[in-house]
Amino acid sequence: MTQPPFTLKRWHPLHLTMNRLTGPTTVTFDTEPPVSTLLVNVDSRLANHRNLVTLHRAAQVNGLLDSLFEPDARLEGHPWYDQLPRIIAMDTEAFIDGEKMTFTWTNDATRNDKLQELLTELGGDETDSSGDKPTFEIRTNTVAEYVTVRILVRTEYETQPRRLRTDFGVGTEFRSWPDKAGIIATRDCKLDVEALKNLIAEAVFEYRYDEKDDSRETQWYNFIDEAHTVAAKLLLNEHEAAAEAIRHAARTHLGHLLPDDRTVQLRKKPVPGSKISDVEVVILRDDQAYGAE
């Protein structure tokens, strides 16, 4: 039998424009792939997009992205391919407000014996004798002491649980609006506001098809605005987050109205009998601008 080239396709589950893969999508090895190579073949019931985006970020944090590849059924039967280890299951664990929480999101609400066996193996020594591990769900975005993606790696000879410390997770299975999605970031998160916003969008944005809903474009822009505010609140202190949210809104919606090289003062003013406040706008003279001598 002719030996096929040692070529594998990079694993890249991110779909949105700002996260598109740059560079070659496949890698061809001169010899068999290195021992660090992993195929991402997560059980279909655990391969929902929230899980895969969370796993992608964990792999990025741990320097593993260049070692992850997609399975290829055409290569099955070739010894070099069949012996490659593969990730077959995953879930997320976080320590929040002094409590350890496990988030197990599936595409199938029915947990049969095979799926339960995978979840039990993910827990390793921490799983109790019954194999029953509670799954938490949070809808409030929060900062965690730590986030860990737990993966199950199957090799030629055994199945091994591994743990990847990371800085991002998702705390709900179905909520798809940024301020209700239970977005989790760690105190030492290395993402900036823009990158976290994009990751939130990648993980939880879903277009609603109801005919009464806004267009896809309008839904997307509304989502991104809210995701930016959520990211700012998770990464910055209260004052900085408020300033960043205002800056982003002004840049996005008011940029074409603001005069060049002038300072604009905004003041929120309540309107008696109305739930909507007015905004007082003053374009300052140069001698009134902040920092003017």
Condensed summary:
This protein is an alpha/beta fold. Helix content is 26%, strand content 23%.
What keywords describe this structure?
about 290 residues; alpha/beta; 6-stranded mixed β-sheet; 3-stranded mixed β-sheet; 6 helices; 13 strands
- Average pLDDT works out at 90
Give the terminus-to-terminus CA distance.
82 Å
Helix-strand pattern, N to C?
Answer: EEEHEHEEHEEEEEHHHEE
Rg result? 24 Å
Helix run count: 6
Biggest sheet character: 6 strands, mixed
Secondary-structure-based class equals alpha/beta
Q: Detail the poorly predicted runs.
A: none
**What would you call the shape?**
elongated
Tally of strands: 13
Instruction: Name the helicity range.
Output: 25-40%
Query: Hey, roughly how much beta strand do the residues contain?
Result: 15-25%
Describe this structure in words.
The structure is a single chain. The protein is α/β, with parallel strands linked by helices. It has six helices and 13 strands. It has helices spanning 49-61, 79-82, 113-123, 193-204, 216-235, 238-254, and strands at residues 6-9, 26-29, 38-40, 68-69, 86-96, 99-103, 142-144, 146-154, 159-166, 168-170, 183-186, 264-269, 278-283. The strands form four sheets. Strands 3, 4, 5, 6, 8 and 9 form a six-stranded mixed beta sheet that branches. Strands 7-11-10 form a three-stranded mixed beta sheet. It has a two-stranded antiparallel ribbon with strand order 1-2. The mean pLDDT is 90.
